[in-house]
Write a structure and sequence with these properties.
The protein is an alpha/beta fold and 205 residues long. 37% of the residues lie in helices and 18% in strands. A hairpin with a 2-residue loop joins strand 2 and strand 3.
Amino acid sequence: MLRGVSLDVAPGESVGVVGPSGAGKSTMMMVVGGLERATSGVVRVAGADLGALDEDALALWRRRSVGIVFQAFRLVPVMNALENVAIPLELAGRRDAATRARDALESVGLAHRLLHYPEQLSGGEQQRVALARAFVIEPQLLLADEPTGNLDGDTGRKVIDLMFDLRARHGTTLMLITHDRALAARCDRIIHLADGQVDRIEEAA
């Protein structure tokens, strides 16, 4: 639960959100991404007042503006890598979905794995597919919730390097939820949450 959180994030900025379990990190991500409704206050993201949007308008805004990467990858097991990445484009009615999905997978080094299914991919490859899916819509905002939580150290570092590289290339605003203070320090600012409130904000070293 969040309580009285006040936070401004500039376009193109990266913020790491840290805090103990139960501090409200994932709740903040869900509210900012329009996946949960705030019970009070105003949530304005990428020019939209999320509280003023009905469910259909909110879903449309989310498809156009927000990319999300989860710890658990959340790929569709019966779809290959190309089909997984094409999903948000197809939902948006894009006729070039397959071409753009192929380009996105190439950008994360998986041009040779287009037709492989999630069970045929390593954990690092699955997370790279998830990154390609998140960036394929060219989102204004990327939300990443413990994106290396299911990966070993070396693979996790490679995925994070790729995520920050893609973010820089696209000029995407990033909100990174993590328990890893060193990872959060790669962002422009670090937001410390405690008991559902912003405890402090610091510039990353």
